[in-house]
Structures are given as structure tokens and as C-alpha cells.
From TrEMBL:
PANTHER family: ALANINE DEHYDROGENASE (PTHR42795). Its EC number is 1.4.1.1. One of its GO terms (cellular component) is plasma membrane. This is Alanine dehydrogenase. Belongs to the AlaDH/PNT family. The gene is ald. SMART domains: AlaDh_PNT_C, AlaDh_PNT_N. Residues 149-297 form the Alanine dehydrogenase/pyridine nucleotide transhydrogenase NAD(H)-binding domain. InterPro entries: Ala_DH (IPR008141), Ala_DH/PNT_CS2 (IPR008143), AlaDH/PNT_CS1 (IPR008142), AlaDH/PNT_N (IPR007886), AlaDH/PNT_NAD(H)-bd (IPR007698), NAD(P)-bd_dom_sf (IPR036291). Residues 4-137 form the Alanine dehydrogenase/pyridine nucleotide transhydrogenase N-terminal domain.
Amino acid sequence: MKIGVPKEIKNNENRVGITPAGVLELTKNGHQVYVQSTAGEGSGFSDEEYKNAGAEVLGGIKAVYDVAEMIVKVKEPIAEEYGLIKENQVVFTYFHFASSSELTDAMISSKAICIAYETVEDKDGTLPLLTPMSEVAGRMAVQQGAKYLEKPIKGKGVLLGGVPGVEPGKVLILGGGTVGIQAAKMAAGLGAIVTILDVNLKRLRYISDVMPDNVFTGFSNEYNIRKLIKTYDLIIGGVLIPGAKAPKLITRDMLKEMTPGTVIVDVAVDQGGCFETTKPTTHENPTYIIDDVVHYCVANMPGAVPYTSTVALTNVTLPYVIKLANMGWEKACAGDEGLHKGLNIIKGEVVYEGIL
């Protein structure tokens, strides 16, 4: 199969769909890989490394789309790419269709086969292709939140870890999934007081068992959220409904109950966000302020640490890419129930319930 790896053109997106190591595995399986020139530079991979691994490096993005039977990307195609996608072409990437009707309509019109990383499932119901980026984003949420709590950036002026004689900052995490666990690890490691809210009591029991003593759990409901937001410094939204829009757990009126300079980080922004006031931002302009509350809603957080993110992503996507290339998308998806759940749009027809 001819596999294309275009350069990501979303604002400040430095990741790339496949590492040179991934290219080598694909060429060993008899496939041709076409990589757009400089596609890997942001992640620390040169054109020469891709050539040495067996790829052919092409000069422009159109050349890659023109030659490829399957496109392997990181982020969803943006408007400039819509017209490049061909009928019957397989596009394997993060799509997050639920948050963009424009993207959905464009992919329907393209009549391509759209397989979304974020809805591929393991046998146990987990999301293997979303997990590594959720791990990165969860850890980054605390890093970024800690930074934006600084007073020069309009935060409260709170150091999350505190110092002797001064109590540490308080972090509220909505959702006890991968994002929540990783955020809690980071915040707890800094010495903050951490509370995780979730509706799954089995998950809360697990979190209570494995987390250090400065991490607490609570049941997620509006009453508890309203109570806690009044005294917490950093609030991280990490809820997920696979393939569908995230629920709005913090409403506009709740902002007035927070103390000025509170920072909220919405990791669910790709799925529409779990705060009512969420709007996607970029690494170039990552924050905005509403009612004296600092919002950090960058839609591609892991793009800021592209080497780590690209290697982590290729580690999990490559077996699926090889399967799709070896067998073709129809046989591969028919024989793998988890991969089949990654099918979102097939030749103009929406087949994933979450985006209907």
C-alpha cells in the first residue's frame, strides 16, 4: 500500500503521524511510505532519517495526498486540506467529529474512509490510541495551570506546592479517567491538595487506593462542583464520552462563584469542552479571561511537546497502520472489532453513532 504522511498545518502543531522507526517497519512489510519534506522537523526527525528508513520524501502536501492510498496524520484535516482528500482514500487520524460540523460535512463530501484514533477500542473497552495523548495532556494540564496561576499572567499568584509555613494550592479535577489520573499524579507530586470527582464509584475506590495522601476523591454532581470551585485554585476538566460531545459540568454562572485569578484548563476541548465558556485556543494565544477566571483551552496540548507525543503516538498507532496496510481497511476492520469502532465516516455515510 502507498502510505502518505503529510506535514501538520494546524496552528503550532509540531507532531508528525509516523516516526522513522515506524516507516522502517512499514517498508519491511512491503509498503511504500511518502513523507512530506520537513514533516518531522518539529518532532526532531529529519528528512534524511526518513529516507534512511526507506521513505520517499516529497516536496509538497498535495504530492503526498495525490499519491497515497492511506493518509496517516495526527490532527484532523483543516480547511486547506479538505480539497486534497480523495474518494476512497483512507484517512487515519484524530478527527473529533462531534465538535465540528464543518469537518464532518467536508469528510462526508470527500467520500473518503475516515478512521478516528479516538474511537478505536481495546477488548476491555479502553481507547488505546487516545490514551498516550491523554497521558500527555493530563500531565501538561498541571504544568500549564501552575504557570497561569502566576500573577503576571492574571492568575491568583498561588504556588501549587506552597512552601513551609504557607499552605499549598488546591487542584480540582473533573473526571477520573486517564487525563484525571495523570493530572493528579503531577499535581500531587508538586505537593498540591488534589480532589478528583467522578460518577464511577469503582473508579473512585481505585484512585483512593493508589494515590498518595494529598489526593482526595468525591462524587461528581452539580452540588459538589459548586461547593468546591469556590476555594480551589486550578480546575482541570478531563471528562470523556468516546466520540461524542463532552457534558458541560461548569456553567457560565459558576465562574462568578470562583475567586478572581482561578485557572481552568479544559482538556476536553477537542470534544467540545466540558465548560460552557470553553472556546478552542492555540499555543500562540492559549488563554482568555471571563469573569476574572483564566481559561486555558488549547485544542492540541500535546503538540507543545512533539517529540514525546509523536513517539508515544506511533508506539500505539503503528500496529493498526500495519494491519490496515497489509489487509486493506475492509478486511482489517471486519477482523478487528476494536478497529471497526474507529470507522466514523465511510464513503459519505456517517457510521459512528456519537456524531449522528
